[in-house]
Amino acid sequence: MADRRELVVWVGKNILPHEAEVRAWLRRASVAAHEIDDIVQESYARLIALDDVAHILNPRAYFFQTARSILYQQARRARIVRIDTVAELDALNILDEGPNPEEAVSSFRELERFKSMIDALPEKCRRVFILRKIEGVPQREIARRLGITENTVEAHVARGLRLLLKAWAEPVPNQPVNRTKSHDARTRKRD
């Protein structure tokens, strides 16, 4: 971070909105009200002490993990720990922000579908599209490599995007069409 003010602004924008949720989570874990205040304050102190936040991809999960870590440290230091508090901590493992198995399979299928759509692009268009949009090669470099003008590179990228958007909008074969009531009503009106 360039300076502390930027870090404070980042915390205010990305962490503060989740404070009520963290407090509710701690209450469900049977943490005493005064301890909740301490845990939240210590979480903020740890976040503000960071040199950089670029590694934090999911601020909400990071805030929960910080609070959970502090709670575990307190539990380890305490002489008497309520068994229901430990059980609640394990049961409230809401930190896994990853997709569930169904979402993972769906995402994999969508990625495979998108790859096949790219493969179906006309050859020159596909080469230019992959170089520009997937590999991030500058337009000027693509033009030099392929012996075409930069305008032609732009045209191929635009055509590739149009073709991909059109293909993406088409229904997936062997998959039921999700029709809404408004769609059914419009269809009935036309009949």
Structural notes for this entry:
- The protein is mainly α.
- The chain has 10 helices and no strands.
- The protein is elongated and about 70 Å long.
- The protein starts with a helix and ends with a helix.
- About 15% of the residues are buried.
Average of the residue pLDDT scores: 78
* Number of helices, counting only DSSP H or I runs of 4 residues or more: 10
Gross morphology is: elongated
**How large a portion of the residues is in β-strands, by DSSP E?**
under 5%
User: How can the largest sheet be summarized?
Assistant: none
Helix content: over 70%
**Alpha-carbon Rg, integer:** 26 Å
Taking the alpha carbons of the first and last residues, their distance comes to 61 Å
In the predicted model, the low-confidence regions spanning at least 5 consecutive residues are: 176-191
The arrangement of helices and strands along the chain is HHHHHHHHHH
Total E-strand runs: 0
The structural class is: mainly alpha
Note the main attributes of this structure:
191 residues; mainly alpha; 10 helices; elongated; disordered C terminus
What does this entry show, briefly?
The chain is mainly alpha-helical.
Write the layout of secondary structure elements.
Layout: H1 4-14, H2 19-28, H3 33-48, H4 59-77, H5 83-91, H6 101-119, H7 123-134, H8 139-146, H9 150-169, H10 181-190
Helix pairs in contact: 2-3, 3-4, 7-9, 8-9
